[in-house]
Amino acid sequence: MAQHLVLVGLPGSGKSAVGHLVAGGLGCRLVDVDSLLVRERGMPVAQIFGMVGEPKFRQMERDAVRTARAGEPCVIAPGGGWAAQPGEINAAKQDSILFYLKCQPSVAAKRVEQGEIRPLLAGTDMGARIGELLKEREPYYVLAHYHVAADNRSADKVAAEVMDLARRHGGW
How far apart are CA 150 and CA 170, in angstroms? Predict the structure, then answer.
């Protein structure tokens, strides 16, 4: 039986883009947690984060991932901070295959600068802040089953590797 596929990594590592490609390629649903929260709340992530604060936002992320894991096997792309919440990686490993989309802070920063403002990165030196986030979060990210290089490769190539691993080891 297929397991959930959970993509973890820095903001800008490609979780959403790769998640869309993987879900499409495997014919399953994508749960992009940030997009889900934006739809539910009717406002951008930065605004939700500002209104409810980080602890409440992290709880909303945890709840969204747990709800997704309770359903049919799917691809789950949580925000970059989800994996660093105590116990979340180990809980997800019970029914999911986790993929760490490994990306250098400088590459992630360039990608983030082209997208929506991220709450923990607003008004900072993007590269330096993402480097700090990597130091804080990588001890959690490396607990993923697979590490996939995501910085100097197209989303298509990263997605192809994730799908190959999912097919070989996850019953897809």
Answer: 20
CA distance 52 to 58: 10
Q: pLDDT tens digits, residue range 17-61?
A: 999 999 999 999 999 999 999 999 999 888 898 899 989 999 999
Length of the chain: 172
Alpha-helical (H) ranges within the chain are 15-26, 33-41, 45-69, 88-92, 105-113, 126-141, 155-169
Q: Are 79 and 61 in contact (CB under 8 A)?
A: yes
pLDDT tens digits, residue range 92-105?
Answer: 999 999 999 999 98
As a whole number of angstroms, the distance between CA 32 and CA 17 comes to: 10
Q: In whole angstroms, what is the distance from residue 153 CA to residue 54 CA? A: 32
Taking the C-alpha atoms of residue 159 and residue 161, their distance in angstroms, rounded to an integer, is 5
- Once rounded to an integer, what is the mean pLDDT over residues 105-133? 71
Domains of the chain are 4-167 (3.40.50.300)
